[in-house]
Amino acid sequence: MGKLFSSKELYKLRNSIPIHVLIETQLGIPAKISEGVFRFLCPLCNEFQTAVNPRTNLSRCFRCEKNFNTIDMVMICRNTDFVSSVKYLQTILNPRESGHGT
Ligand SMILES: [Zn+2]
């Protein structure tokens, strides 16, 4: 995998978009608040045994025993590769800039 994106840029994409907003609003994954916890339908096992951690901005499925960051979620839900998923997140973060300058 080449270095198409700087680690700083990837860090920003993983942390600047609240993961629950990405899940519910951008990706349209079914989600609900249960016992005060945001839960979403796991795209891998289709169960609601999930949670998000606002501190790390990761989502977790307890059944799959996996953590997903924003890029992982886009790759799984949109079935896109890493580069396309990063570009998708960039358009969410910078809706007015098409493409990315340096
Ligand atoms: Zn799962």
Tell me what you see in this structure.
With 102 residues, this protein is α+β, with helices and mostly antiparallel strands. The protein has one domain (7-93): DNA Primase, Chain A. Helices cover 37% and strands 19% of the residues. The strands form 2 sheets. A 3-stranded antiparallel beta sheet has the order 3-4-5. Helix 3 (70-78) packs across helix 4. The longest helix has 12 residues, at 82-93. The radius of gyration is 14 Å and the shape is globular. 18% of the residues are buried. The protein binds zinc ion. Zinc ion binds at residues 42, 44-45, 47, 61, 63-64. InterPro entries: DNA_primase_Znf_CHC2, Znf_CHC2. This is Zinc finger CHC2-type domain-containing protein. Pfam families: Zn_ribbon_DnaG (PF01807). It comes from Desulfobacter hydrogenophilus.
Concise overview:
The chain is α+β, with helices and mostly antiparallel strands.
Task: Based on Cα principal axes, name the global outline.
Answer: globular
**CATH level-two architecture:** Alpha-Beta Complex
Major sheet description: 3 strands, antiparallel
Total E-strand runs: 5
Helix content: 25-40%
- What ligand molecules are bound, each kind once? zinc ion
List segments where confidence is low: pLDDT < 50 over at least 5 consecutive residues: none
How far do the termini sit from each other? Answer: 20 Å
The overall average pLDDT, rounded, is 93
Proportion of beta-strand residues: 15-25%
Number of self-contained structural domains? 1
How would you classify the helix and strand content by structural class?
A: alpha+beta
Could you give the order of the helices and strands?
HHEEEEEHH
Structural Rg: 14 Å
CATH superfamily: Zinc finger, CHC2-typedomain
- Total DSSP helices: 4
For this structure, the CATH topology is: DNA Primase, Chain A
What CATH first level would be assigned?
Alpha Beta
Main sheet: which strands, in order across? 3-4-5
